[in-house]
Write a structure and sequence with these properties.
The chain has about 80 residues and is of the alpha+beta class. Helices cover about 25% and strands about 25% of the residues. The protein is elongated, with a radius of gyration of 21 Å.
Length: about 80
């Protein structure tokens, strides 16, 4: 199995590519013109939660070790709308 990699590693490559594109665009503009800001990348939100001691399902209240995000809350597999 390959080694795990950070999402930030991929976001950094995307930001570098954006910076290169912005640098090319900036070179084409008149000197002294304000440069456009580089877009920021939104942080990823987890879709899954593992709690070895168990955590309450937001829908039914049952204590479970694995929960998935559903409408902003973490719910058990039985309550998750797949």
């Amino acid at each position: 199995m390959p080694e795990d990699r950070s999402l930030e590693e991929f976001a950094g490559a995307e930001l570098d590519a954006d910076a290169d594109t912005n640098a090319d665009a900036e070179a084409d503009t008149d000197a002294g013109a304000d440069a456009e800001a580089v877009d920021t990348v939104d942080l990823a939100e987890p879709t899954y939660d593992y709690s070895p001691d168990g955590a309450a399902c937001a829908a039914c209240g049952e204590s479970v070790t694995r929960r998935w995000r559903d409408d902003g809350d973490y719910v058990c597999g039985d309550c998750k709308e797949w």
